[in-house]
């Protein structure tokens, strides 16, 4: 286990904000996990598990505690049942699966971050969610001080939700995840933007490898690259609706999407219709290709981000009556 001190959180999170973390412990073997929690306990400090920092917002005062990072990498493949170590770059797992012809996670290509974080908010994109293929995870339970297996049903997965980002936040350290994938292809109809791409480019190959290629191109044209542009991806969640709410939204000329996962309003549409797409607010740019994304162009403090967030929430609330909910987790 590596022990680092006073590490700026702006260097560990893709939004590139935040003061120093007192300690950062890098876990290199599963037994290190327990040692890391013991280290924090001995110093009476709080802990926070961090992966690639692509969905975490840090504060200016930093974190007077212990950041625990999973750096254990590797993929084991038992006829399509993949055991992916939590420190594996998520997209490396997608690349592996797609290259073997396994379907199930190809639409989740290029989502930044590590595999250990994938179940936390049940990552999803272009019609797939990690919950669709999830079997279980090996975890360390910091409350009971034991290693155990959590089954899919324990996670209570739904849109951008699991027990790990709600009722059991900060309790479990994900060591590895198991996914069950099958050889095959996704079935049409695909997500709107994939359908649009294949009709414009006369694509007829829907193999996992080709869907991965298509999704990668769509994402590259639409989303900022976190290695060069500071952002946390979608800053707000989409809004899921009941049938009655959907009818009311449509009566108000707000487009409602009927996906595999239910009825929803694209919150990016609301932000754009409120006139904020491309606007620079307190150093944060509302992305000009995807209004749901906030890019940290010149913000230097958390308060800049908070001010931009308030303006966006207020504008959408005043124009449409919906209250946007933040997607990234606050450290
Ligand atoms: C440009 C961009 C595009 C994005 N697109 C998408 C998208 O299409 N779909 C989508 O769902 N998300 C998207 N995201 C969000 C982000 O990529 C995902 O949420 C991803 O899973 C975050 O991984 P991470 O390792 O960076 O997590 P971190 O930000 O490091 O952590 C996120 C949360 O998970 C917890 N956590 C991390 N690792 C572990 C672990 N081993 N054990 C227990 N808890 C852990 C942390 O405590 C924290 O609460 C995007 C982000 C960016 C910057």
Descriptive notes:
- This protein has helices spanning 30-42, 90-99, 152-155, 192-200, 208-222, 243-251, 267-273, 302-320; strands at 2-8, 20-27, 47-50, 56-57, 63-70, 75-78, 81-85, 102-103, 124-125, 128-129, 134-141, 146-151, 172-180, 182-183, 231-234, 239-241, 257-259, 262-265, 280-281, 284-286, 293-296, 329-330.
- With 331 residues, the protein is of the alpha+beta class.
- The protein folds into 3 domains: 2-70, Uridine Diphospho-n-acetylenolpyruvylglucosamine Reductase, domain 2 (2-Layer Sandwich), CATH 3.30.43; 75-183, 2-Layer Sandwich (Uridine Diphospho-n-acetylenolpyruvylglucosamine Reductase, domain 3), CATH 3.30.465.10; 231-330, Alpha-Beta Complex (Uridine Diphospho-n-acetylenolpyruvylglucosamine Reductase, domain 1).
- The strands form 7 sheets. The chain has a 5-stranded antiparallel beta sheet. Strands 1-2-5-3 form a 4-stranded mixed beta sheet, covered by helices on one side. The protein has a 4-stranded antiparallel beta sheet with strand order 15-21-20-19.
- Helix 2 (90-99) runs antiparallel to helix 5 and helix 4 (192-200) crosses helix 5 (208-222).
- The chain is globular and about 60 Å long.
- The two termini are 22 Å apart.
- The model has no long low-confidence stretch (mean pLDDT 96).
- It binds flavin-adenine dinucleotide.
Layout of strands and helices, then pairs:
Elements: E1 2-8, E2 20-27, H1 30-42, E3 47-50, E4 56-57, E5 63-70, E6 75-78, E7 81-85, H2 90-99, E8 102-103, E9 124-125, E10 128-129, E11 134-141, E12 146-151, H3 152-155, E13 172-180, E14 182-183, H4 192-200, H5 208-222, E15 231-234, E16 239-241, H6 243-251, E17 257-259, E18 262-265, H7 267-273, E19 280-281, E20 284-286, E21 293-296, H8 302-320, E22 329-330
Parallel strand pairs: 2-5, 3-5, 4-22
Antiparallel strand pairs: 1-2, 6-7, 7-13, 8-14, 9-10, 11-12, 11-13, 15-21, 16-18, 17-18, 19-20, 20-21
Residues 14, 48-56, 70, 86, 111-114, 116-118, 120-121, 123-125, 164-165, 172-174, 223-224, 226, 231-233, 329 line the site of flavin-adenine dinucleotide.
């Amino acid at each position: 286990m590596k022990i680092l001190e006073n590490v700026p959180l702006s260097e560990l999170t893709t939004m590139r904000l935040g003061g120093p973390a007192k300690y950062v412990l890098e876990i290199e073997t599963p037994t290190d996990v327990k040692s890391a929690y013991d280290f924090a306990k001995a110093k009476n400090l709080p802990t926070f598990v961090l992966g690639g920092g692509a969905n975490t917002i840090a504060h200016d005062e930093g974190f007077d505690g212990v950041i625990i990072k999973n750096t254990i990498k590797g993929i084991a493949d038992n006829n399509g049942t993949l055991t992916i170590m939590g420190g594996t770059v998520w997209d490396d797992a997608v690349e592996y699966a797609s290259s073997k012809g396994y379907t199930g996670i190809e639409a989740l290509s290029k989502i930044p971050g590590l595999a250990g974080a994938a179940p936390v908010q049940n990552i999803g994109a272009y019609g797939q969610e990690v919950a669709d293929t999830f079997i279980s995870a090996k975890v360390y339970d910091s409350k009971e001080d034991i290693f155990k297996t959590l089954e899919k049903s324990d996670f209570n997965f739904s849109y951008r939700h699991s027990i790990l980002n709600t009722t059991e936040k900060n309790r479990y350290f994900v060591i590895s995840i198991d996914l069950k994938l099958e050889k095959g292809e996704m079935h049409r109809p695909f997500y709107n933007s994939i359908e649009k791409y294949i009709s414009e480019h006369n694509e007829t190959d829907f193999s996992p490898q080709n869907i991965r290629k298509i999704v990668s191109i769509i994402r590259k044209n639409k989303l900022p690259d976190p290695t060069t542009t500071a952002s946390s991806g979608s800053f707000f969640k989409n809004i899921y609706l009941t049938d009655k709410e959907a009818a009311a939204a449509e009566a108000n000329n707000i487009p409602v999407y009927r996906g595999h996962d239910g009825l929803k309003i694209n919150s990016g549409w609301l932000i754009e219709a409120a006139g904020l797409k491309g606007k620079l607010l307190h150093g944060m740019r509302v992305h000009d290709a995807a209004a749901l994304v906030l890019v940290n162009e010149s913000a230097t403090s958390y308060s800049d981000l908070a001010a931009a967030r308030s303006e966006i929430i207020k504008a959408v609330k005043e124009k449409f009556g919906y209250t946007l909910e933040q997607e990234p987790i606050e450290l």
